[in-house]
Amino acid sequence: MFRLEQLIDDILGQRKPRSFIVRGNRVARRIGLQLEQLNERVGNLRDKAEEEQFGTQAVMTALPDGALLIDTARRVRFANMRAQELLQLGGDPIGSSLLEATRDATIDAAARGALLAAAPQTVAIKTAFSSVPRHFEVRIEPIGKETPYLAGAVVLVRDLTDLKQAEQVRRDFVANVSHELRTPLSIFRGYLETLLENPRQPPGELLRILETMERHSNRLSSLVEDVLSLAQLEANESKLEPESFDLSECVRAVVRDWQQKFVRKHLEIQTDIPPHLIITADPVRVQEMLYNLVDNAVKYSKPNGWINISLNRDADNVHIVVKDSGIGIPARDLPRIFERFYRVDKARSREVGGTGLGLSIVKHIAQLHGGAVHAASKLGEGTTMTVTLPSAVRARDAAS
Ligand code: ADP
Prior knowledge:
alpha+beta, 5-stranded antiparallel sheet, binds adenosine-5'-diphosphate
């Protein structure tokens, strides 16, 4: 009898008995053999359960969403890493109530509703764990079909913050573009009405009206061009067409194109360009980037100032530096100037024909090439814009 007890103890303690042979009467021997079969079956079941648990855990870990498993009493039975990270479930959430673990009454109420109705429930929640609120969609999916037979529920947490932000950016963009289009259009309408009512304007007044209309029509075309360019750059299929070209020559050509504008504002132009700096990049986009930078340097320069354009390279990168002695940018605005439509002084930018999109275009082009753009500035003293590009962008990198 003592031997049988020891065998049962070993099986319960998951220890492998030395032998299942029990000396003694026939009954004891038979029980010993049955215990051996039982032990084998328990072992098989345990292996199977471990295998299934391993599979479930692997799936849960690989899920891009947060996943929690709760029982019918809404106690947490399992939480994957993503759930712990998204909901900031401190400590070990296993065994605690869903409300304790998530500290969110909406999720708990939805779970109660889903378990009572045996039907999925989805709620949107906004958390304030960090300084930036995050938006989650939480879906509760009961396990099993009917209330008395429910085993619990799966709580899936999806982070929609980036999606919401992207939607907001798009909405702001559309609102900004409409606003920017409305200004010149209402100016056109106003002047056209004036001219229709009284076509015989004094010559000086007529010239002023036509000049204003021309200025706004130029702004309108720049805006449309910039919006289109940005839309192309941001499109998923946006591709660069890299080729090997002489960047030094490209910069010299831009300087030549802008000569008249430099002269008109009495700007001294200094260049520090090596004879032939060859890079592999998209020449059209690089030229667009240079135009925007030089355009800004001119627009925000004080008359009789200077602009310095230099090119240099290190082991992997080339640096294009456009420096001006203009009005400069206040430190608080500096981090935001690459945002679409961000302008330090809206009226001034409009006055000089700006669209507020130039620097976002520069940033996009630099990033598509695997590079970056950096601004340094001192209010009242001037601004330095530095674009860093890898000397060779491979076609495959550029497309991705
Ligand atoms: P904009 O068409 O208004 O020039 P950008 O996107 O090119 O738009 O630039 C955004 C803002 O950054 C400008 O409105 C201006 O306030 C500021 N800025 C850009 N470049 C310079 C510069 N070289 N000097 C001073 N301010 C600048």
